[in-house]
Amino acid sequence: MAEGTPIGRVRGLGSAKSGAHHWWQERLTSVSTLVLFIWLLVSVLRLPDLDHDSVTRWLASPLTAVPMLLLIVSNFWHLKLGLQVVIEDYVDEEGLKLFAIALLNFFAIGGGALAFFSVLKIAFGGGNS
Fold first, then answer.
1. CA 25 to CA 31: how far, in whole Å?
2. What digits encode the pLDDT tens for the residues 50-85?
């Protein structure tokens, strides 16, 4: 009904039908990343020492590892969403745009997986190797 009208486009009901969803994902990941970064900052500042042993013991706790994993997921998801919008807005050639988005997905998933694995390794006691 309102798809082709200006109000339909504002509501995210344009031809792609995903604008509002993408916009909400960006807002939700920005808020969750901000909250989790504040948690990280407060947690790190409360540590008695920032040496390797103190930090790995702190990160090995489930009450620390789980929010850290959530921060990783939220941060890399937000990064992917934001850079995808930049690519979609500023890369005009469709083939290059597709390649850039595929490369972005590869690096976002790869970087997130590496960070996720690193936290899990420490959390499950393999941080000393």
1. 10
2. 999 999 999 999 999 999 999 999 999 999 999 999
pLDDT tens-digit series, residues 9-58 = 555 555 555 678 889 999 999 999 999 999 999 999 999 999 999 999 99
Token representation of residue 21: 């969803």
Distance between CA atoms of residues 121 and 129, nearest Å = 10
- Amino acid type, 111: G
For the entire predicted model, the pTM comes to 0.81
Q: Give the whole-angstrom CA distance, residue 18 versus residue 113.
A: 26
Q: Which tokens in the block code for residue 100?
A: 């850039």
Domains and their CATH numbers in the chain: 6-123 (1.20.1300.10)
What is the three-class DSSP state of 74?
helix
